[in-house]
């Protein structure tokens, strides 16, 4: 049986040794899931999506796409379906990374857009039309080579983060990490390279989980905003005290 070396950061390797986690079994399971998800992406013929009639039902993610990519969240499936519809309506030979980025913005309510906004990047400007066609396709409408690679990276990112779903936040990392597509170039030019996006996604998810646990008895955006203000209040107070110490004393008369 062939062996694959797995390299871990020092702190993680030490934790694995201390806890006795069965590395082989965990890695095998994760790789099995990643291979299945990536194989599903490569096998999709997007003409089937159009013929199935689900491309028009974009807000639900599309029944065909949901079946073929079962681990994609509804918003991620909607974004991919919107990208397919955009490319088809434009008569493009492939669905490119620019279509995926534009569709992610058009979906309008996903975490990736909040990530970009927190990085002071305007998603609408990133999704400007006019991206050149990308190579790939053959045998009907398919993802371009960069778009297919970006989606494969998207699945790999979700797996690496230990998530059992694939969301738009993972798609954002995948688009930023893919080196040849128009979306990746636009993201990196705006300061959103894969490392920065990945760190921001991890921080956002950790913060959301923490706030959600704190606000479990309450629901709605009002409760969440109240929790955010409570979290920020000590930090604001420390900043105000620091500013007071650093402010020059008033001139004596």
What does this structure look like?
The protein has 253 residues and is an all-alpha fold. Helices cover 64% and strands 2% of the residues. The chain is built from 13 helices and two strands; from the N terminus they run H-H-H-H-H-E-H-H-H-E-H-H-H-H-H. Strands 1-2 form a two-stranded parallel ribbon. The protein is globular and about 55 Å long.
Strand residue content: under 5%
Binned, the helix content reads: 55-70%
Please outline the major beta sheet.
2 strands, parallel
> How far from one another are the termini?
86 Å
Mean pLDDT: 74
At a glance:
The protein is 64% helix and 2% strand.
Set down the secondary structure blueprint.
Elements: H1 10-19, H2 23-43, H3 46-51, H4 63-68, H5 74-89, E1 94-95, H6 97-107, H7 111-118, H8 123-126, E2 142-143, H9 145-160, H10 168-177, H11 182-189, H12 194-214, H13 221-246
Parallel strand pairs: 1-2
């Amino acid at each position: 049986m062939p062996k694959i070396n797995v390299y871990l950061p020092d702190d993680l390797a030490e934790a694995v040794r201390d806890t006795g986690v069965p590395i082989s079994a965990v890695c095998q399971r994760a790789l099995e899931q990643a291979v299945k998800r990536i194989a599903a992406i490569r096998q999709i013929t997007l003409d089937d999506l159009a013929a199935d009639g689900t491309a028009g039902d974009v807000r639900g993610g599309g029944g065909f796409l949901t079946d073929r990519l079962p681990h994609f969240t509804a918003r991620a499936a909607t974004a991919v379906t919107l990208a397919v519809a955009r490319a088809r309506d434009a008569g493009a030979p492939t669905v490119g990374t620019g279509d995926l980025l534009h569709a992610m913005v058009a979906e309008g309510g996903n975490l990736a857009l909040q990530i970009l906004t927190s990085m002071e990047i305007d998603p609408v400007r990133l999704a400007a039309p006019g991206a050149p066609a990308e190579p790939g396709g053959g045998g009907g409408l398919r993802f371009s080579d960069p778009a297919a690679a970006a989606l494969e990276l998207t699945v790999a990112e979700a797996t690496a983060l230990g998530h059992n779903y694939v969301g738009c936040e993972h798609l954002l990392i995948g688009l930023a990490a893919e080196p040849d597509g128009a979306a990746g170039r636009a993201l990196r030019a705006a300061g959103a390279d894969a490392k920065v996006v990945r760190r921001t996604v991890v921080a956002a998810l950790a913060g959301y989980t923490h706030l959600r646990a704190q606000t479990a008895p309450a629901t709605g955006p009002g409760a969440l905003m109240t929790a955010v203000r409570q979290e920020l209040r000590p930090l604001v107070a420390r900043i105000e005290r620091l500013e007071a110490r650093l402010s020059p004393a008033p001139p004596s008369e």
